[in-house]
Records
---
Amino acid sequence: MSTPLLEYRNVSKSYGDKLILDNINLKLPHGKIIGLLGRNGAGKSTLIKLTNDLLAPTSGEIFVNGETVGAHSKEIIAYLPERTYLDKQLTVEQTIKFFAEFYRNFDTAKAKKLVKELNLDPSQKVSKMSKGMQEKLQLILVMSRNAELYILDEPLGGVDPATRDYILDTILSNFSEGASVIISTHLIADIERILDEVIFIDEGKIFLTGDADKLRKEHNTSIDKIFRQTFKANVNTNN
Amino acid sequence: MDFHFDDERPIYIQLVEHLELYIVTGHFPPGERLPSVRDLASIAKVNPNTMQRALTELEDKRLIITERTNGKFVTDDQEFLRKQQQQFAREKIQKFLSEMQELGISRTEIIEYLQSLKRKD
């Protein structure tokens, strides 16, 4: 088997006595769209921050293309954080220029094309843009990098259905050949259609992983419903 | 071309059904070259991997043919396409008949209904 794009080996993370991630073992391949699905507080964002080297695991190891996560993995991974990080004083155009200087693998032509397609005004200041427009811009900046792994943390948080469709379209048509996309969300019904694989996470543990269409076939229902059923069972065993 | 999906069934199976229908009804004419996997995925608003899976299935069913360098084409075997169309018609009629049976309507009554509809046309 070829080297996984991303691998977690016995990864745990705790803050003091509180265990946030409990012995995560995963191997993620190239060329797939993967849903990291869980409720708020399940451990999704912590897992993503570990993958982006923003936090260190308490124990275990994370590998990107066979190498331990570190500064060099930032070239391979394009990360969309949950919270906005844009400089509000810059215009759309200036923001793109800033990113092009910051990232070697940034495709300015692609960014400009997407700005046009998503109907943003290049001369508008970020501070004058609505929340939905800012989210579109952030997604453009991430998807315009020629990365191998795109990690999108809650990319649909608080956008209207029309913007949601634009965002899903942009993800689908811009993930480069052979690259993978991890989409972390609790809004499963909104994105399940575009997923190849799913990872269910709850209370810091992986509950289920698998091919989305196979799971639909086996359970005869949607990923959203499988998730709700799995989670319900989990609550019951805890009682 | 319209694609709509039900999240409770595998997406690639629904894609196969949509594409089969578009092929036998001539939306994709016999012998014609299909758009690329990526373009088809973008038209249907699905993951390119899911589209690839559906196309592989259509190839297994001999509705499309891959030419190594030129891409994918709709079969030009018109006789085969016509048989597929008749097969779909049979399946739909079968489904209709079992629904009518559930309603407690006999075949004779169905024929009477159909004839009365025809007279009104």
Note: The CA atoms of residues 6 and 21 of chain B lie 17 Å apart.
---
Amino acid sequence: MLLLFLILGITWGGIYALVGLGFNTTFWTLRILNFAQGEYLMAAVLLSIGFNRWVNLPWPIAIVLALAVTAALGLVLERVAIRPVLQHDPRSHSWVVTTLGAGIVLQNLAVLLFGTSEYPFPKLMEGVVQLLDARVEKQLLAVFAITVVLVVLFDIFVNRTLMGKAIKAVAFDRMAAEAQGINSRGIVMLSMILMALLAGIAGLLIAPMVSAHPYMGTLMTVKGFSAAVLGGLGSPVGAIVGGLVVGIAEQLVGGYINPGLKDAIGLIFLFVILIARPQGLFGKKVAERV
Amino acid sequence: MAPLLQLENVSVKYGAIEALREVSFSVEEGSITCLIGANGAGKSTTVNAIAGLVPTASGRILFQGEDITKLPASRRIAMGISIALEGRKIFGDQTVIDNLMLGAYTRSKNLSKLRREAEEMLARFPLIADRGQQLAGTLSGGQQQALAIARALMSRPKLLLLDEPSLGLAPILIQEIYQIIQDLADQGTTILLVEQFAAYAFMVSQNACVLEHGQLTLAGPVAEVRDDPRLARAYLGK
Amino acid sequence: MKRFVALFLVLSMALLAACTSQSGSGGTSSQNPSTGSQTASQSGGSESKDPIKIGLVAALTGPSAELGKGIQMAARLAEKELNASGGVLGRPIQIIIRDDQSNTQLGLNAVNELIQKENVVAIIGPTNSGVVKATLGVTAAAGVPHLINNGQDTEFGYDYPHAFQFAMPNRTQARMIAQFTQETGLNKAGLLTANDGYGQPGRADVLAELEALGVQPVAMEEFKPTDADMTSQLLRLKDAGANVILFWGMGNDAATIRKNMATLGWDVPLVGPNPLVMNNFRDLAGPEARNTFSTYEATFIRRPLTPKAEAYAKAWKAEYPDDTLFYGPGEEPYFYLAMGAQTYDAITVLADAIERAGTTDRAAVLEALTNTQGFEGVNSVISFSKEKRVALPDEANILVEIKPDGVYEMK
């Protein structure tokens, strides 16, 4: 039992971590939190289904195309919901409302296009494996493996490429970054694309295990946000640890106490961390420099 | 020979405020020119405009005879203009080496090549030579200034813009920084030096420009500017 | 810090708003244009050739749209057939259809409008049990016979003297689900039910029927409809040693459960009520739509078909040759047709009662309906009484096994 809870918790935690990392990318470059994040997760999934069902594209192509459109939607979000707000007043927090609003628009568009019904999504692989005393589906392990690969790639990108260092530079001091010839506008675009792709891939990973529908993203926004805040906004390690903590805690609480409390765990963590240690587990004391 | 840098009637506006009004001067290749004036006279605005970090409202900026007024900062860096910003503005959450590598952002994206170059650059700055892996935010003020200059040099500039390198430093450190500036000039780097304390600037500069309320009021060889009564007025106000 | 608390509050509120908007969402209502004369004739005693109006409220859009459309098609078929054979009392039948989008308020509005403005003889519908419950008081107060073509709550056929139930009552289904444990010997039952207005009464019915059989469930879990992940509940059932899952909820949730069971490598039978036979369960569960059992009308599953069922299937095919949802694909009538036949039976029983009453007076029609004896419907032979007004006798229902490719009578 415990082993199964841990396996499930780590897998779901990895998904929350991906969404949490997406929160970080826009926090770095724009000092904003994109509360439409979960809707990008949903968009990638439903667009894949749409391209496959209605345009008759094979799944791999449909998925790549859907991710491309999702990334483009990320750029649109920056243009319509974030840039005008920050241009008007860089210290404004109106982006809370505008990103939430953009999410609701995306959700309603999805309802218009796809209705409120649920859609199936194909698995990467079939079959079951035995892990010690736990039996789990291969699909679950595939999701976990892909999540690990993505997190490693993300780490390499941010810490081991000049582009990644440039993102951190823009996050730290936009003008100083510009003075090095870093196109901060471009870096912001890149962060929006990264955000959309992280969310989109997270969605594609869970889509076969859950059902795809226009409301699938909302709860993921909350859980990804919990992961990011728990770990400390801006800290990639924090987002990963935060995601895993939320994921595992959910499984343990759901399994040993009451399944109905599962979805509340993220929020409870959020409350506790905000009161006890607002900068999060791995956040710096001066996380907010706006 | 045409000057390396030439400003023609450059104006800069921040909203309704005119920070710079029709400023014209030039910087000769191989020289140190200092830009002096009281706090808020428009010195930083001038170098930031040259670097492409603030847009000009009117006028032209020529570099090597070419009009660069509308070019983005990245293009200007690639052409050979580099700036060490006022207040150092190092990337405090990254290592010294990472800071240096970012200085060469427009030149290359090859990390191993850049790392080698960054280490070579580091060796030229005794103040920070053994600090490569340290987070830049943990350096002392003088070390940060050295890093800021070293980072600006990573793009291999023909023209180096130095904005207030002595700001907030103890006199002993100011001497060290000015020694670095002198060495750079000796190696042939053209420098436009912004300095609030004219005395420091005059030690190393050949030419001086004086800004007052966003206008150029005095320009010429240091020897002349130093003794001009208008210099005192520029600092003391009317 | 304060700022983040504020952010968090805004986020939670938005989340709540998003959740509640789920139930109310849907397109604009696509009402059927009500044709015919605008003069509201008295429902009783009119000697004219004006059509006899019957009101039908169905979920034509929204979450139950698939079903609602089938109901509409069945109603149109009944209307056409009745009118082709001379109508009722020498007058044509006109079925006025309104869309409630599975929304209680819209359902109430529609029922009120049909009674007050259209002056219908009787109300058929609405599609969803919750909406039916809300409208029963309106029809009772107006003395309008209420034919429940799709609502399954057990009390519908017993507690309301003006209501007649054509769907399979929950209690009947619960009994069959409970009996599954006896028939298969899998009596370590784990209950897994939705914590909503459908799942909770269903759970109570199943528990009562299990108790009657002397079976004590090994564990009981609930889930929120559309929960993305029910592995926690499943692991608790598994840990308690359950060897069969008694389920009460909708097909999409059952699909999530079967997929989660696959994730956990756990495979025991899942038994539940008839929403499981709907297409969305098999669509969503894909290859995992297996080892799943449900109750359903035997009408189009058992062979040979009764003459009445055969005639209905033929008529459907002729009227809707392109329909693949209720009929096809292929030449065999689809088992799902029974769902539409509930509405068809309701309308034909009503027509028969009006004919016998000899008037469209609501009280007289109600009296005639209550006295219906041995009427041959598509799904069953229908008899009502003052005590029980349930169209489907227990033997009309069977347990079916659901497989990825279809639905079969359980062996």
Note: Chains B and C do not touch (no CB pair under 8 Å).
